[in-house]
Amino acid sequence: MSRQSAGANAPRWVVASRRSSAGYRAQEQRPAGEPSRRGRGGSRGRRGGEWREPSGAPEAGSAGRREPPLCFRLKNDLVGVVIGRGGTKIREIQNTTNTRIQITKGNPEAEVKIFGNKAMQTKAKAMIDNFVKKHENYNPEHKSVLEFQPSVEKEVNANDSGTDDQPLIDWDQIREDALKWEKKKWADLPPIKKNFYVESETTSSMSQVQIDTWRKENFNITCDDLKDGEKRRIPNPTCKFEDAFHSYPEVMENIKKAGFQNPTPIQSQSWPIVLQGIDLIGVAQTGTGKTLSYLMPGFIHLDSQPVAREKRNGPGMLVLTPTRELALQVEAECSKYSYKGLKSVCIYGGGDRDAQIQDISKGVDIIIATPGRLNDLQMNNFVNLKSVTYLVLDEADKMLDMGFEPQIMKILLDVRPDRQTIMTSATWPYAVRRLAQSYLKEPMIVYVGTLDLIAVSTVKQNIIITTEEEKRTHIQTFLESMSPKDKVIVFVSRKAVADHLSSDLILRQISVESLHGNREQSDREKALENFKTGKVRILIATDLASRGLDVHDITHVYNYDFPRNIEEYVHRVGRTGRAGRTGMSITLITRNDWRVATELINILKRANQNIPEELVLMAERYKANKLKKEMEKKMGRPQGKPQKFY
Asked: What keywords would UniProt list here (predicted)?
C-alpha cells in the first residue's frame, strides 16, 4: 500500500517520537535521499500532522520490559502547548524522561500516548500537566481536564452513564427561599401612606373637551396609564397652584414667595398623579420644571406619614441625580421651598466625605445624592435607606449614559419595595424603559411634546459652517460683541480645550470661568457661583453642565465643539430660553461633524429654525460618501486605508 493511499483513511497524526531502535521506530521513514527541511532539529514529514525527531535519539524503554502506553485525552487547542514552538517542549519532556510521546488529533479531543517504563511515563505525564496548568493560569478560558485513560486493565461499566453523582441545583427552591428572605427582611416595616390629593371643584368640573384643549395648547401633553389590565382614569390637570395645593397653605405660601404665577405644563399634569400615590414617569426637555413636579408632592408625602419624622431612623425621601451640579441644584431648591423644617443633605463624590457622614448622623429627612458616593456610604453602613418611602430617579437617561445602573441596583436593594417612585428623563430610549419596568410599579407616564427629540422653541438656533482653524476667530468676534447684560455658556468637547480656551481668553483680558470634571469641587462650585451671580458672564464648560445647570438668565449658548450625539445638542441648547425667557444658540460645525448633519437638520425643522444651505450640502455629501462605502463593501473593493494585520 502506498503511503498516499494509506494516509487517505488514516486519522490526522501529530506524532512526537524518539527513534533509535527497531521496536520504537516511527510509522513512516523519510526516503533515504530526501534532505532534512529543518536542519538539525526535529522536522515535519510530508503530512503536516506528523512530528519527527532527528535520528540518533536514545531509545525509550530499551532497558526494561515493554510497558503498555499511558493514555489520556487532551483538548485539541492545547496540543500546541504540549509540543511547543518547533517541538521544543515535547523534546524536553522526551529527553528528560526517556520516553516516546504520540499525539493523535481527534474530535473534539486529541489522544496522547506515552511509551516507556512506568516511572518515566508518570514523570512525563506530570510534566505535561505542568505545561497545561501554566497555560491555563495565563489563559483562564482554556479550562481543560486531562482525563487519565489507561489502554489496558480498565473495565468500562455498561451501566455507567458517565455522569457525576453531584446533586442538581433546585432553582425553584432557591427562588422560594429568596422570596421568604425578602418577606422576612421587610416584615417589620411601619405603614406607609401615599394618597394626599384633594381635587378642587375647578379641576373636577373640567369637561373632556376642556382637558384635551388645555393639553394640546400646552406643548401637546400626552398621558398614559402603564398598568396592565383595566386602565385607571388619568387625573385632570391642575391649571393653577391653588387647584393642587389648596389643602396645604404652607406650600402655597412658599410658592407666593417665589413669585410664580402658574405651574408649568408638566407640573400641572404631574401633581395630581403623584399626590394620589401613583408612580410616575415624567418625560420632558430641560428647563420645563421637572424638579418642582416631584419636590412639592414629596414635601407633603414626608410630613403626612403615620410615623413621626423623629421616629423613622433615617431619611424618608431619596433623590438620585447623575451629576454633582444637579444634586446641588436640587438641594438648593429644597432649601428655597423649605417646608415644616424638613432637613436635606447633598451627598456627592468630590465633597468632604467626613462632613457628609456627620450631616447624615445628625438626622435628615431628604437625601439628594449621586449614585457613586451614596453607594459608598451605604456599603459602609453610614446611611440607612430602609426608611425611604419616596424615591426619585432624576435625569434617569443621563445616569444610565454615565454607567450608574449597577450602583442604582445596589442602592435600591435597601429601599422598601412598596415605596412611591418618580422617574424623570429628557428622553425615552429602551434603556430608560427597561429601568422603569424594573423599579416602578404600575406607573403613569406624562410626556411634554412628543417622544421625538425637539429643542425648546424659545431658543433661536444659529448654525455656522467653519473649519477647526477658524473657530477661535469666530468665538472671539462673538465675545467682543456681547452686551453687558448678556450671559453665555460655551460648550467644548474636552477638558483640555476648556482649559486652553479659558487661558487664551484671560490673556486677552476677557473674564471667564471654566467648569469640567478635572477641577476640584471647591473650584467648580466657586466658578458656578460666580457665573450665577453675574460676577463672571462667560462660562466655558464640558457636557458636565449640559444637564441640570439651572441659571435662568443665560442669554446665549455657544457650541464651540459639536457634542458627540444629537441628544446632547438638545440638552445644551436647553440651558437658555428657560422660565419663559427667550435665548439664542450659536453652533460651529466643521467637516468632522458631517455625520450628524441630517439629524441636526431634522431638529431645526421641528423647531422652525433657518437651515443653512451649507448644512444641507454637507448632509448630502455624507449620504453620498456612506452609499459609496456600502457599494464598495458589496463589491469587495478595498475601502479607505488598508487594514494592518499583526
From this structure: ATP-binding, Helicase, Hydrolase, Nucleotide-binding, RNA-binding
Nearest Cα to Cα of residue 383 among 418, 421, 347, 417: 347
Q: What are phi and psi for residue 500, nearest 5 degrees?
A: -65, -45
Helices (H), 156-289: 171-185, 201-204, 208-217, 241-245, 249-258, 265-274
Q: Give CA 58 to chain center in angstroms.
A: 62
Quick count: other Cβ atoms within 10 Å of Cβ 68? Answer: 13
Q: What is the pLDDT of residues 563-611, one digit of tens each?
A: 888 878 887 888 888 766 889 999 999 999 999 999 999 989 888 899 9
Residue 178 identity (one-letter amino acid): A
- Identify whether the C-beta of residue 434 lies closer than 8 Å to the C-beta of residue 366: no
Contact 541, 563 (CB under 8 A): no
In 3D space, the residue among 259, 256, 344, 350 whose CA is nearest the CA of residue 295 turns out to be: 344
3-state SS of 48-75? CCCEECCCCCCCCCCCCCCCCCEEEEEE
Distance separating alpha carbons of residues 193 and 307, to the nearest angstrom: 10
Provide the pairing of β-strand 109-115 with 100-104: antiparallel
What's the pLDDT score for residue 166?
55
Q: Locate cell 422660565: which residue? A: 579
Location of C-alpha cell 425553584: 172
What is the per-residue pLDDT across 344-369, written as a single tens digit (0 to 9) for each?
999 999 889 999 999 999 999 999 99
Query: Taking 50 as the threshold, does the pLDDT of residue 45 lie above it?
Result: no
Are residues 319 and 342 in contact, defined by beta-carbon separation less than 8 angstroms?
no
What stretches of 508-547 show up as alpha helix (H) in DSSP? Answer: 521-533
Collapsing DSSP to helix, strand or coil, 366 comes out as strand
Residue 146 near residue 74 (C-beta atoms within 8 A): yes
Short-list 525, 604, 537, 619, CA closest to 569? 604
Return the exposure string of 441-472: e unless at least 16 CB atoms fall within 10 Å of the residue's CB, then b: eebbbbbbbeeebbbbebbbbebbbeeeeebe
* Amino acid at position 638, single letter: P
- C-alpha 7/C-alpha 298 separation (Å) is 82
Q: DSSP string of 283-310?
A: E--TTS-HHHHHHHHHHHHHHT-SS-GG
Separation between Cα atoms, residue 291 and residue 333, nearest integer Å: 8
State the Cα–Cα distance between residues 24 and 6, nearest whole angstrom.
20
At which residue does the C-alpha cell 429627612 appear? 365
Q: List, in order, residues 6 or more apart from 309 with CB less than 8 Å away.
A: 302, 303, 316, 365
For residue range 618-641, list pLDDT tens digits in order: 999 999 998 988 888 888 655 555
Nearest CA among 157, 93, 166, 160 for reference residue 131: 93
**Of 488, 519, 517, whose CA–CA distance to 505 is shortest?**
488
The radius of gyration of the chain from alpha carbons, rounded to an integer in Å, stands at 36
Helix axes 495-507, 471-480, angle to 10 degrees: 50
Neighbours of 59 (CB within 10 A): 17
Distance CA 394, CA 326 (A): 9
All three cell numbers of 481, joined, read 460683541
Lookup: cell for 559: 457650541
Please choose, from the candidates 135, 126, 46, 37, the residue with its C-alpha nearest in 3D space to the C-alpha of residue 86. 37
With vertex at residue 586, the alpha carbon angle to CA 583 and CA 591, rounded to the nearest 5 degrees, is 155
What are residue 541's phi and psi, to 5 degrees?
-145, 155
In contact, 392 and 317? CB cutoff 8 Å: yes
